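Field reference: sequence -> structure
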Amino acid sequence: MNLLTVLESAVDKAFLALKDLVKEGILEQESNNSFNFSTGTYEDNSITKKVSVIITETKADGSPEPKTEVLVKTKDIGFTRYTRITVSGIVYRIEEIKQYEGITMLLVRG
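Structure field:
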């Protein structure tokens, strides 16, 4: 068993142990509308992806929207394409991405 497999297994176990805190999140790409000249309509080409998340901490830093840390169980997700994540009906802007093997921490505001 290689190190990556061990880490991914540990993340799976942690998310299972913390199942009461795990929520579904939806990663969203910035709106990517295009105009279709043949039909005369706008087409939405946005990309979304469902992920398992745990909100770990919200920091009041004096701004109207506090900074929140969101842990995302990840495997083969290119986070740089996403600009927002929605968790429990709240839309957060992704400000910083810290990727590790099997898990990613997003610093968000919303």
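Note: Residues 3-109 form a domain with the Thrombin, subunit H fold (CATH 2.40.10).
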